[in-house]
């Protein structure tokens, strides 16, 4: 399936696709040329603020006497963990801040505060997922190997328990990411040799479990149960939030899935188009954007995964203008709606094909803004 056989792109000529690539390259060049002190200050302040919030939350958990104080501290700890995971760990791991040449804030040195090993995640996520976004059989993040999210994925009987898997994955998302990274490391070892990653991951898990569930509770003395419960609850809350944000960026209506043949002789412009159609945003103000690691701008993040997250809102205005200029879809909507569509898709495709009533073409267009579509017979006006 060539990218321009997708209805939303069928009106584009080769010249259009090349022009779009140049326009997107220009956005990248403009942002890269303007990176400087303001951006470096942003990430350093974010790291300091996150660490202060983490410490303050733990103090409240330890010193508070009532349930309300414990709940306040636990929620604050969950917020701190979410910021560390998404706005810091995820984005540093993408190399968004490597241009600073700061050895402490670099993709090769940052280890995030969750079970998965950063180095394994960088391969499975930065390469396998971002290069091959939503390509069936190539992108391992498409359903994370346990969920069916497209009718083009062959149905298997074990998909019947997808609703249960979906709930379990949401609750233990950090562990799903850890295992996902391990499987990617093993696949890579089979191809190019090297370590399969089992020992490295075991060491990271030992450190993480030891910190959250042994060392920190032990430091609380007689109040160790409060600390243990707070750490476990905060991790679950962080897992649920990360799961919602990630799934809403890839599986709601309008986020296209592709056959592997789309990769044949794919040009840079076609790669850009695939990232745009294979991703989805959700509407967010500044606070929610920050808490999501700015992944409410998933389309822009997939176009420019190594550009700093604090620039994505600025980039989004230009990308949306290009979508209007080229008559391309720009999939976004309220977070509850985006998640409902994702939830519906997971439950819908858990069933065998004979039970499905809606066609693939309808699934691909539900939820998009009608005025942003073009039909197969549309004619490009660009030259």
UniProtKB/TrEMBL annotation:
An example Gene Ontology molecular-function term: oxidoreductase activity, acting on paired donors, with oxidation of a pair of donors resulting in the reduction of molecular oxygen to two molecules of water
GO cellular component: membrane
Classification via Pfam families: FA_desaturase
Chain intervals with Basic and acidic residues compositional bias: 360-371
UniProt region (Disordered), positions on chain: 360-383
Name by which UniProt lists this protein: Fatty acid desaturase
Taxonomy of the source species: Bacteria, Bacillati, Actinomycetota, Actinomycetes, Mycobacteriales
Species this chain originates from: Mycolicibacterium litorale
Biased segments, Polar residues type: 372-383
InterPro entries per record: FA_desaturase_dom, Fatty_acid_desaturase
Transmembrane segments: none
Domain Fatty acid desaturase: residue ranges: 69-332
GO BP: lipid biosynthetic process
């Amino acid at each position: 399936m060539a990218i321009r056989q997708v209805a939303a792109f069928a009106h584009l000529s080769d010249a259009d696709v090349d022009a779009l690539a140049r326009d997107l390259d220009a956005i990248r060049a403009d942002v890269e040329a303007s990176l400087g002190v303001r951006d470096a200050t942003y990430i350093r302040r974010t790291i300091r603020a996150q660490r202060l919030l983490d410490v303050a939350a733990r103090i409240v958990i330890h010193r508070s006497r009532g349930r309300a104080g414990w709940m306040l501290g636990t929620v604050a700890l969950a917020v701190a963990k979410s910021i560390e995971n998404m706005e810091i760990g995820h984005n540093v791991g993408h190399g968004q801040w490597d241009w600073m040449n700061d050895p402490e804030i670099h993709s090769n040195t940052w280890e995030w505060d969750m079970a998965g090993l950063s180095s394994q995640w960088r391969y499975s996520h930065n390469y396998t997922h971002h290069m091959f976004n939503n390509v069936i059989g190539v992108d391992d993040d498409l359903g994370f190997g346990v969920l069916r999210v497209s009718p083009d994925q062959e149905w298997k009987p074990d998909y019947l328990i997808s609703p249960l898997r979906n709930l379990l994955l949401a609750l233990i998302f950090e562990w799903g990411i850890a295992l996902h990274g391990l499987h990617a490391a093993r696949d890579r070892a089979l191809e190019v040799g090297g370590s399969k990653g089992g020992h490295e991951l075991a060491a990271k898990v030992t450190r993480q479990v030891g910190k959250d569930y042994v060392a920190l509770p032990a430091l609380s003395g007689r109040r160790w149960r409060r600390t243990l419960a707070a750490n476990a609850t905060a991790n679950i809350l962080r897992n649920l939030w990360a799961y919602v944000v990630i799934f809403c960026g890839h599986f709601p209506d309008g986020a296209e899935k592709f056959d592997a043949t789309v990769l044949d002789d794919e040009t840079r412009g076609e790669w850009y188009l695939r990232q745009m159609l294979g991703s989805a945003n959700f509407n967010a103000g500044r606070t929610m954007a920050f808490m999501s690691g700015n992944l409410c701008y998933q389309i822009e993040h997939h176009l420019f995964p190594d550009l700093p997250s604090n620039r994505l809102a600025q980039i989004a205005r230009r990308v949306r203008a290009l979508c209007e200029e080229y008559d391309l879809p720009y999939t976004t909507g309220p977070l509850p709606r985006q998640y409902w569509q994702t939830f519906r898709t997971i439950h819908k495709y858990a069933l065998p094909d004979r039970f499905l009533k809606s066609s693939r073409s309808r699934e691909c267009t539900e939820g998009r803004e009608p005025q942003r579509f073009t039909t197969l017979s549309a004619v490009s006006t660009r030259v």
